[in-house]
Amino acid sequence: MKKIIPCLDTTLDEKGNAVVVKGVEFEELKYAGDPVELAKKYDREGADELVFLDITASTEGRERMADMPRKIVEQISIPLCVGGGIRTLDDFRKVFDAGAAKAGVNTAAVKNPELIRDAAKEFGSERVVAAVDCKRAFDSTENKTMLELEDGSKAWYDVVIYGGKTSTGKDAVQWALEVERLGAGGILLTSKDRDGTKDGYDIPITRSIAEAVDIPVIASGGCGNLEHMYEAFVNGADACLAASIFHYDEYTIKEAKEYLKAKGI
What structural domains and CATH numbers belong to the chain? Predict the structure, then answer.
């Protein structure tokens, strides 16, 4: 079954309150709502799952918001995946103790890939999501997976960490294969180039990773309309994650599902 997954990109405001924000290419963050209220709305509307990301925990080197996932779980009936600032097995444990169904890890896994293996062994692969943030790179480098882009040019996709601020030089397709081998049960794939642009999901990397791995791939970054979701699904995505179009009431979850059903998804 294909899934529609709203995303709550959350940070702390100047008063220390948790707020959902939306930016463009991980920058210029603007207020989008209260995480608990939005979670309740999406549960009512029929979302299949929900993702809560503490988007500045890693970059600010602070502790993850511990209470917010629990508050959300208490108000919804759908599975919650929590990411951001997860660095250790104990962090995974705390997320699951708070009631989350899954936990996503990006920066810490790139720095210590064995964390994925250890978490999968401890908690089960189905609960461990590898968040892969990536950005197009146009330098022709050996041993990189060069993909053809929309205009016919070629690029490989560089894995980025710390909220997209740091390049790793890792090839995203090769990294996706590695996280699958290590035991991740799914991949949350976000294109930094498309994040917040509403120009559509990054189809070349979505298709390439979906074809390369056997675990579910969640397409993320760039959804501006329902046609974009259709494009991602027919190019191999198992789920579409979206934020702006739902946060600002451009579409409802029900409208998205009805549109996709009419298109044969």
Answer: 3-262 (3.20.20.70)
